[in-house]
Amino acid sequence: MFDKAPSIYLKARNLTLVGAILLLGVSAYFTRNTVFLLLNVDGGPVIDTLFKWATWGAEGWAWIPYFVVVFGWFKKDAKFILLNFLLSTVITQIPKNFIWEAVSRPIASGIPVSEIHTVQGVIMHSWNSFPSGHTATAFTFFLLTTYLFPTKWTFIIGAIYAIICAYSRVYLGQHFPMDLGGGMLVAVISLQLSRLICTKISNKKSDEKSI
Question: What is the pLDDT of residues 79-91, one digit of tens each?
């Protein structure tokens, strides 16, 4: 299961990697403030509501129903799912809280508050900006699902879901686009490390049985 990745997953991984590099590269070249203001637009009340709710789709608690459905219903590998959860969480939270904890979010970055589109009822955060945890969760779900269920539809629906959840963070004024790029890299690293670890565990068990 882990030694050869499905082609749909590889396509999803490459798409995520390219997107991450583009967001980080463009932000570095044009400055993170410039790219943020370009994408942080006011779409009106309906779009405000859409993204206000869409961002909940990538909250940390979303791992619970994901695990229940994918492991409980479809009987997919529990260790692989939990490993992705743990790695994604650790790789996101350690840099966010202990390395780059002083990296500001848009509201505290010096951008005039009047130029930042915010949505009523959304609590604005000021620090711990990089990488975006919501984006890491959304794209980990996307990659993990295409790995476990390698079909065209999981790729299409998963990509739409991940992109909407990630963009909601910029739309709501909570993150810079470069933070999304960081979250996407976290997702790729988490899946690749999970595969590597599970492959070694599987090979070790096979060697023990052959003795």
Answer: 999 999 999 999 9
pTM of the predicted protein model: 0.96
Query: Is 7-199 a CATH 1.20.144 domain?
Result: yes
Q: What is the pLDDT of residues 152-168, one digit of tens each?
A: 999 999 999 999 999 99
Find all residues with CB under 8 Å of 173, minimum gap 6, and list them: 40, 106, 107, 116, 117, 118, 119, 122, 124
Do 135 and 183 touch, CB atoms closer than 8 A? Answer: yes
Evaluated on CA atoms 76, 144, 183, 53, the torsion sign reads: negative
Q: Tell me which residue of 143, 184, 206 sits closest to 3, measured CA to CA.
A: 206
CB 67 within 8 A of CB 144: no
